[in-house]
Amino acid sequence: MKGLLGKKIGMTQIYSKTGKAIPVTVIEVTPNVVTQVKTLENDGYVATQLSFGDIRENLLTKSQKTHFAKANTTAKKYTREIRDMNGYNLGDNVTASIFQKGEMVDVASVSKGHGFSGPIKRHNQSTGPMGHGSGYHRGVGSMGSITNNRIFKGKNMPGQYGHDNTTVQNLQIVDFSEENNFVLLFQKKLHEDKELILLKLKLKLVAVERNHELKKVQVMLDKVLQEIRNEDMVELLLDQNQIEITH
């Protein structure tokens, strides 16, 4: 597993060799600092804590100042932990070079907030007749059967829309620059500007790789068991009087 913290700058477009315009989202990824390394022996799981975004030191608490001082780095605004990310030491810098062009990643961030919204915008419900005589245009609709004397849970109602922690899967890295600290993602709509973005290797791909490794281990175990059950090996051990057969 590998990941990186960044900030959405905005959108632009680039052109392919054939002249086709490709819409991309620009993510600023200044070098992340490893502020903590968690191991299986000390913490019970493997993870790497990354910090991103410089802020004034007087905005930190005393414990936070001590935490960043251990990594020999300045005060950071954002700190996130990425499971199963290893191979780094305390104080190391993680840059955009960990990714490759064409690689698929999952992007986690806060979605764009829309405030208090009605059911048509929030749940994509249909409007009523728009003629003047209908008297019901953008309402909630039926509340359900009257015999139950209550409204069932899950009824689409007006309320807060957006500003949720969301993850968009399977986004392709079109380009990146370690010198200019940016990553271009092929996506038309991706969260809100100036929001913290967490780029992680495609989770489904990681699961497939783990299953592939487990299958390899299972094949190796089957081969070992087959060798143990081999009659020639048993006869050899009998000839050397290393085992005894009991009835």
UniProtKB/TrEMBL annotation:
Q: State the Gene3D superfamilies in the record.
A: 3.30.160.810, Ribosomal protein L3, domain 3
For this UniProt entry, what's an example GO CC term? cytosolic large ribosomal subunit
Query: Does RNA-binding show up as a keyword for this record?
Result: yes
Which InterPro entries does UniProt cross-reference here? Ribosomal_L3_dom_3_arc_sf, Ribosomal_uL3, Ribosomal_uL3_bac/org-type, Ribosomal_uL3_CS, Transl_B-barrel_sf
The family database entries (SUPFAM superfamilies) matched by this protein are listed as: Translation proteins
Q: Does the keyword Ribonucleoprotein apply?
A: yes
Concerning its family, UniProt says:
Belongs to the universal ribosomal protein uL3 family.
> What NCBIfam families does this protein's entry cite?
L3_bact
- What protein name applies here? Large ribosomal subunit protein uL3c
Organism expressing this protein natively: Biomphalaria glabrata
Q: Which gene encodes it?
A: 106064494
